Amino acid sequence: MLTDIQLNRYADTLIWGLKTARTKPFRKGGIVLIRYDSPALPLAEILYARLLEMGLNPVQRSTLTPNMEKSFYLLSNSKQVIFQPPGEREFYEALNGSIYLHAPESITHLSEADPKKIGRAAVARKFIRDILNKREETGAFSWTLCMLPTNELAKHANLSLEDYSRQIVNACFLDHASPASEWQTIYDQSRAIKTWLNSLDVAYFHVESSHVDLKIMPGSQRKWIGITGHNIPSFELFISPDWRGTQGVYYANQPSYRNGNYVEDVRLEFKDGVAMNISAEKGEVFVKNQLSMDKGASRIGEFSLTDKRFSRIDRFMANTLYDENFGGLYGNCHIALGSSYTDTYSGNVAELTESLKKKLGFNDSALHWDMVNIEQKRVTAHLKTGEQIVVYEDGRFTC
Question: Helices (H), strands (E): how many in the chain?
Fold first, then answer.
């Protein structure tokens, strides 16, 4: 596990992320939720004190244990699976910040659960995401999250706990006296890349690798964002494209765990924006069930690229937060099936109505599942003028 010094540095970094992710500063008396898995309690205690010192009101909630979560999905009836506690809507409508400390004691305990039941529970809680998205759009809310090493994660990543912890320390700059300063440097460096990408009038991006041949249409009134403080770590730059313009084949050669299920070598063929032909070497039935969760689950909500010059992650970590930010030899690209990010809208996000989202091709779903490709690749921007510019190659942006 992490040392006391590293935990305190982690807390500093998360506070930096929570502040940086906001468009408006915190006000005294604001409410911040600390949600944590039980092994993360030492970090939660440090954060609780930091938030009090900032004049904020921390609210702590531990997550369900693996046995509780397994019982919920195996034993709940049709009414229980969609039940929401009284006051839940009111709480989230008043929430100003959220920090999630992910430290799972099991990542396979839901392997026996019905994927459709998991989907129904996710759909029932989608109203919370919608509330928080709206609050974030107005500057009233921000969030960040991180992960701590556990034996379970290390085991599924085929690493020792020491090596797994070292990946986290390196990725989050916890080996530096001031990790927040390192993050601020990367935050500043990424601005130039985003400015360049957003200056291009792109008709579509063409992603090519050994197993990928995919066209993605950014759509109108979009902007590239990323390295915003939301995720610790996060090195990706991304856009929520117009889902209707997605055509071709995508292949995720980075494995993933989701809801207790292991998935490997997912191949998706898109026609008119929808994943029509879906296959996987492992977990195919689960993938198909997830992508049928709702109408938007089989459509793209995000397209992302990670520059290997930023990321120090070079091993499979059995966790999406790290695997979607993989650096290694060739960086990575990933797409997310499901919900889009409205903060990639180039206008005033607070004025982005549901009808305008639909008109612009922002996808809506209870699902958001990142699928990662770490092959050597080239991404070419086909401009509306007919010009072609390679924007990403061999794991680096070309600007």
Answer: 12, 18
Determine the Cα–Cα distance for residues 216 and 248; give it in Å rounded to an integer: 9
Cα–chain center distance at 189: 21
- pLDDT (tens digit per residue) in 323-366: 999 999 999 999 999 999 999 999 998 888 999 999 999 999 99
Name the region of 55 (left: φ>0; alpha: ψ -120 to 50; beta: rest): left
Model confidence, pTM: 0.89
Q: Using CA atoms, how far apart are residues 89 and 112, in angstroms rounded to an integer?
A: 30
| pLDDT (0 to 100) of residue 33 | 98
Sequence-distant (≥ 6) Cβ neighbours of residue 329 within 8 angstroms: 308, 376, 395
Assign domain 4-181 one CATH number from 3.30.70.580, 3.40.1830.10, 2.30.110.10, 1.20.1560.10. Answer: 3.40.1830.10
R_g of the chain, CA atoms, integer Å: 20
Distance CA 14, CA 148 (A): 13
**Rounded to 5, what percent of the chain is helix, strand, coil?**
35, 25, 35
Question: What's the number of CA atoms in the CB half-sphere (13 Å) around residue 382?
Answer: 11
- The tokens describing 283, both together, are 């977990």
Question: Which residues are bridge partners to 57 per DSSP?
Answer: 31
Q: Which of 299, 284, 271, 278 is nearest to 366 (CA)?
A: 299
pLDDT digits (tens, 9 = 90+) for 15-61: 999 999 998 999 999 999 999 999 999 999 999 999 999 999 999 99
Contact 123, 366 (CB under 8 A): yes
- Helix/strand/coil (H/E/C) assignment for every residue in 261-289: EEEEEEEEEEECCEEEEEEEEECHHHHHH
Query: First and final CA of the chain: distance in angstroms?
Result: 39
Is the distance from CB of 319 to CB of 164 less than 8 angstroms?
Answer: no
Does residue 115 surpass a pLDDT of 90?
no
Supply φ then ψ for residue 283, to 5 degrees: 85, 25
Domain boundaries, the chain: 4-181, 186-397
Q: How far is CA 361 from CA 88, 203, 339, 345, 383, in A?
A: 30, 14, 11, 11, 19
Side-chain half-sphere of 133: how many Cα atoms within 13 Å?
A: 19
Question: CA triplet 193, 227, 199: central angle to 5 degrees?
Answer: 30
